[in-house]
Amino acid sequence: MQYHFTHNQSRKGNPYDNAVMESFYKSFKREILPGKQFHTKSQAILTRLDYLETYYNYERIHSNLNYLTPHEFETMNEFA
Q1: Is residue 32 included in any domain, yes or no?
Q2: Could you tell me the residue range of the domain that residue 21 belongs to?
Q3: Is 69 domain-assigned?
Q4: Counting runs of H as helices and runs of E as strands, what totals does the chain give?
Q5: SS3 of residue 14 by DSSP
Q6: C-alpha to C-alpha distances, 30 to 3, 26, 34, 80, nearest whole angstrom
Q7: What DSSP string describes 17-48?
Q8: Which residues contact 56 (CB under 8 A, 6 or more apart)?
């Protein structure tokens, strides 16, 4: 199944400076897209926003943040 995401690369064949977004796209495609069908662009946008605002930032732990959620990490480092 093709999702037709456009990958952002700075130089031909060198996506390393965009590794964070590539990791996000990989997670999004694996965790949300299987079995989903969007009938409108608005549905796709709302699904993405819901994923970011209710799950990815507040529930999903990240190994590069010492196994904290982004929200927990920002809260702990707010005054650092």
Answers
A1: yes
A2: 16-76
A3: yes
A4: 3, 0
A5: strand
A6: 11, 6, 7, 34
A7: GGHHHHHHHHHHHHHTSTT---SSHHHHHHHH
A8: 24, 27, 70
Total tally of structural domains belonging to the chain: 1
In the predicted model, what is the mean pLDDT of residues 48-57? Answer: 91
pLDDT digit string, tens, across residues 59-70: 999 888 899 999
Q: How far apart are the first and last CA of the chain?
A: 45
Q: How many angstroms separate the CA atoms of 35 and 50, rounded?
A: 17
Residue 16 tokens, joined: 């390393």
The pTM of the full predicted model, rounded to 2 decimals, is 0.62
Q: Is residue 28 part of a domain?
A: yes
In a domain, 10, yes or no: no
